[in-house]
Amino acid sequence: MHRRLFLTTIGATAAAPALAQRTPPREPNPQIDYGGFERLTGDVRALRAQRLLPFPRFKQQAASKGALLLDARSETAFREGHIKGATNLPLPDFNAESLHATIGAPGRMILIYCNNNFSNHRRPVPVKAAPLALNIQTFINLVGYGYTNVWELADVVDFTDPAVEWVTE
User: Fold this and answer.
1) DSSP code at position 118
2) Please, which pLDDT band fits residue 4 given cuts at 50, 70 and 90?
3) Which structural domains are found in the chain, ordered by start?
4) Do the beta carbons of residue 68 and residue 108 sit within 8 Å?
5) What would the pLDDT profile of 117-164 be if each residue is shown by its tens digit?
6) Stated pTM of the model
7) Pairing of strands 82-83, 166-167
8) CA-to-CA dists, residue 52 to 16, 63, 76, 153, angstroms
9) Could you tell me where the beta strands, DSSP code E, fall in 47-102?
């Protein structure tokens, strides 16, 4: 019995590298492109690294003429609290039409922040797993839709700090 378990384990372990070397299957749905998503995330990584702003600079840029402070959290979370002057467009609602209606021209400066920019770790900004932080997905989606003038809050701040100008609706 132990020998059969050992051989099964060895077989599964030996098969793992072979599976990893396979060409990914074509998506059966032509409206889904995982390979395209992988390429986009790789392309966006260097740009995002250059677009992280410390809080004072982020607030200064958000106040500049024509800039859009975008909050991609849920509508409920946005109503429970957000940075003064922010516009809400939840990430699940991103598409070419909604982004154009909210942002306008692709060259417009967009500043983003999300839950993981706050140290409070409670509603309306509970911390998300770091690799799944909404900042990353929002940045990738905006660039993927052609909005390349995106800037992101780099710091972790306390929303009770008066400098944040946290408001509720």
Assistant:
1) B
2) very low
3) 52-169 (3.40.250.10)
4) yes
5) 999 999 999 999 998 898 999 999 999 999 999 999 999 999 999 999
6) 0.81
7) antiparallel
8) 38, 17, 26, 6
9) 52-53, 68-71, 82-83, 87-88
